[in-house]
Design goal:
disordered C terminus, 49% helix
């Protein structure tokens, strides 16, 4: 456990962290994982798909239709994670099968055809009403839910602790798509806005004209797909794109 915590907390990138975490979950019988995080949740929707951070080691034949085609919106355990926090056995699906919608039943059938029929889901607590993170721990294809529950009965406490540590570390690492990655100048301009500086002030500090500062801010708004600079500061903060230490190893080098 201490070795895992040391490696995870020392990870410099999301990719490095994810490799360590997948490696750590495999000995417990959970070789396949699916993690999702959004900071743009609202009462009626999860937010823009482009703003999600999704990590998985599942095959593309499953991941692409499940994620890109929006099947996750009707996944029973996704619904559970949105309404609850903590861990939950996938036995919940069987126990509530009569209450599932037709679209949820289609997802259950899709999962079963891909050997995804036993596991655990963890919904992570978030201090923000806009944020929600969760992970699905998928048992081996030859394992039953009884097998997964037996694993959890013996090792659940440490598995839960390890996933919480991984989630908290992810929340502190830069994460965005290549399309929404800010340049150094855009990040710097947003940081000064966050400090309460005016465009004129920022121009003097950065040695630029006010028009050039506004250009950087406009491009930052476009990259982050927001309308106002204030929204850009908030969104960039959620993605850990601003107030970075320049020497931070691996900062924003991933797509």
């Amino acid at each position: 456990m201490l070795d895992y915590v040391e490696r995870i907390t020392a990870a410099d990138t999301i990719e490095e962290l994810w490799e360590i975490h997948c490696e750590a979950m495999a000995p417990y019988g959970f070789h396949r994982l699916l993690y999702g995080l959004t900071q743009s949740r609202s009462p009626n929707r999860l937010g823009d798909r482009e703003d999600f951070l999704i990590l998985t080691n599942l095959d593309k034949s499953y991941a692409e239709p499940f994620i890109n085609d929006g099947m996750y919106l009707h996944a029973p355990m996704v619904r559970w994670t949105l309404e609850n926090s903590g861990p939950c056995s996938w036995r919940w699906i069987r126990d509530n099968i009569d209450a599932l919608t037709s679209k949820e039943l289609q997802v259950v059938d899709f999962n079963t055809r891909h050997g995804i029929h036993a596991g655990y889901s963890i919904s992570f607590k978030d201090v923000s009403a806009r944020g929600i993170g969760a992970i699905g721990l998928i048992a081996n294809t030859d394992a039953s839910q009884d097998d997964a529950d037996a694993i959890w009965a013996e090792h659940g406490r440490e598995i839960l602790a390890m996933n919480n540590v991984a989630h908290l570390k992810i929340m502190n690492l830069p994460h965005t798509s290549a399309r929404k990655m800010l340049t150094k100048r855009q990040r710097e301009a947003l940081e000064w806005v966050g400090e309460g500086k005016t465009t004129q002030d920022i121009g003097i500090i950065m040695g630029l004209t006010p028009a050039t500062v506004e250009k950087h801010l406009r491009l930052a708004r476009e990259a982050l797909d927001v309308e106002t600079t204030a929204q850009a500061v908030v969104k960039a903060s959620f993605q850990n794109q601003i107030f970075l230490v320049e020497a931070y190893p691996g900062a924003l080098k991933f797509a």
